[in-house]
Design goal:
heterodimer, A: alpha+beta, Cytochrome Bc1 Complex, Chain D, domain 2, five-stranded mixed sheet, 6 helices, 19% strand, elongated, B: 555 residues, mainly alpha, Cytochrome C Oxidase, Chain A, 0% strand
Chain lengths: 339, 555
Amino acid sequence: MSFSDFQLIPDGASTLASKVDALYFFALAVSAFFSLLIAVLIFFFFVRYRRRIDGPQVGERIHGSTPLEIVWSAIPFVITMVMFVWGAMVYYEKSQVPADAEEFLATGKQWMWKFQHPEGHREINALHVPVGKRIRITMTSEDVIHSLFIPAFRIKQDVLPGRYTTLWFEATRPGTYHLFCAEYCGAEHSRMIGSVYVMEQDDYQDWLSGGRSGLTPAESGAALFTQHACDTCHKEQRTGRGPSLHGIAGQQVRLASGRTLTRDDAYLRQSIVHPGAELVAGYPLLMPTFQGQITEEGILHLIAYLKSLSAPAAEYSPPIPPEGAEQGPSSADPSEVNP
Amino acid sequence: MSTNVAAEASHPAPGDKPVHYLNWAYGVRSWLLTTDHKRIGILYLISITFFFFIGGIYATLIRLELLTPQADLVQPDTYNRLFTMHGIMMIFFFLIPSIPAVLGNFCIPLMIGAKDVAFPKLNLASWYMFMIGSTMAMFSLITGGVDTGWTFYTPFSTTYSNTYVAPVAIGIFINGFSSIFTGVNFMATIHRMRAPGMTWFKLPLFVWSHYATSLIMVLGTPVLAITLVLVALERLFHFGFFDPAYGGDPVLFQHLFWFYSHPAVYIMILPGMGVVSEIIAAFSRKPVFGYRFVAFASLGIAAIGFLVWGHHLFLSSQGVYAGMIFSAISMMVAVPSAVKVFNWMATLFRGSIEYSTPMFYALGFIGLFVIGGLTGVMLATLGIDIHVHDTYFVVAHFHYIMVGSAVMGYLGGLHYWWPKITGRLYSGFWSHLSALLIFLGFNLTFFPQFLLGYLGMPRRYHVYPEEFQVLHVLSTAGASVLAVGYVIPLVYFLWSLKWGRVAGDNPWQAAGLEWHTSSPPPVHNFTTPPVLAPDAEPYHYDEELLTGTPSPELA
């Protein structure tokens, strides 16, 4: 047992940490004030109005006071609304992922965390990040629900199977910090832990250049794209049996059902795992399911690859009516072309 | 409505001891086939006491394991079963039935001047459902156990756990009917069985809080029951409700589960609040300040309680604005809760306060409830929850509510009505000592866990980083004190049955109809059915009404 490093507030090492702490201290002060007030009043009344042999044997018959009830309903209402608004502001900041954040990938599985840097470096139960850079981690699970928790960053986000969640932060202080799984996930839940290493930017660059980077997520995705023969149908120009996948990520698309939706990460994942679920208008369902054939990391790589594909330059290769056009209304098709 | 076979059998012969509900008939049959609400209350008392100590043994093992950062006492598989079984035992088989099924069953008909509940046979059926459900769960827990946590989160529970999930889920499903039966019975009883003149605003606040509790039991429990059936179906037949591998949605489970299980927290706390209102009035000899506000606060908590489940899902990928709405509504629970606390304080003001064991528990309840409630507001604050969610901060918070408050309320009520239930008094010295040990032990156990939580210690961890050990040692030390505090009442309550002083009809000189019949009460509760005068008030205390005998407890 070590008393030397005993502390009541954990190290704070992100831009969010001081904001969460400030809110916590405010709530703590309010709570301490009311707890003490009530404790002191209980103690005072208990002593002051104790039954004495020569004193009154029954209490005074006081039935209530509506003004008092209004006052002590209003006080907690106002205080909790202040806490609500303040808390919602911090939560909103946590939920709004900055557009310029660098994208890391994370996969949780029983019982380890796998991370991948944009440059391709892979880590297990360890995450090296530079100080002063906004970083977002796109996360998914291969099995049950996990939750990535970095106490020093005051941040946590559940990691779900079949779905992507995002956690972002900007580290402010170099150091080594805990990384936990916070959602109970089975036998070795308490060993699904690791460390976050926050490094000065130069040190981080040294660290990156020191290890073998391997392929970047997009490069791995490109390899998978070829390996699974996706390019047989999905061609750059819209000449394949499937829709062209160039420049589509994040864009609107019209579906065979008539609905329009954004081709975000979740849509792209679903179209790989269950191609029939949200079919693009104008294309028949020819694609088999790839559920279970590509790992969650592989799907993340494929998505990274798709995002790296820019739309075909119009002057270089003018759009050609797709061959599959006769199988569906070709008028629906241009809606998915990136303007 | 009430049909009790023993009615005519209980004519006391001259010179004999008075005949009451305990001694009019003996033998196993007279207990297992009873439809008397008082005897059913006793059956529940014995059953839930058993489950409380089973759950307590699990808690002891958990705290012993957490004494050191390493895994030395048990292995992870065992540890995960321990906290799961602790939660299931304590919540489903102790806390939810505790005050309603024991004290509510015993007292509500007495308090409203009825001779039994509206549906006496349904009342007995409720106990049998409880026993079938709990036996089934116990059997699975003993033969193999369950490692999902009491929350059964999917897809871990439906696909990945190798333990006896389905039998336990079905046990809890069956047990749910005991809750529903009790809730239906209380509502019908309170509506239809009140004595002449007992209007709604003359009801004791204990009855009001049980009315609110019954609403939650009847409206909420079916949702949990159906959810557990879906878990069992997915587990056994791979229906795709929750596991994405079968096309389900794992977060759907969390919505369904917490739609019941958050209101269930109010099933555990509201009856305790009712007990506190009774005790504070009785031992201040004063009407409860703001009676109607306290009564409506119970209904308010029950109603708002159904709209706050999403605060368990702030980090489950729920939308940002959904999170904000659930946060704001959760904050609203603070208002009726604070109203209750302030009214209790005002009831003490200019009271004639007696120092007694039930009063110690009631005041302990208020103190711990305030801390539990305020930390609940902190958890409902989105910006704090992102850090402390799923940490020991949550563990500490809900133990302040569910042990600090609910169990204190239960023990306070048990000490308050024990003379009525058994006709005997317990030892003043030992009951004061145990109340003190429980209060101190509780705080020493759970206060350090708030600190652990903010430091980042996740819950359900079997091994942990070394810097958390100091606080874990404090917590385990507190748990030892707490355990002693819980065993002492078991001893003196049993002792009092044979050697305790005879209590008399109204040892506390309390108002309330239950004190206007003999202790223990006769089979049909009142020898002459009570009728309330038009000007009768709840909690009416008057010097002239007192019999002049001093309080017996400290003798």
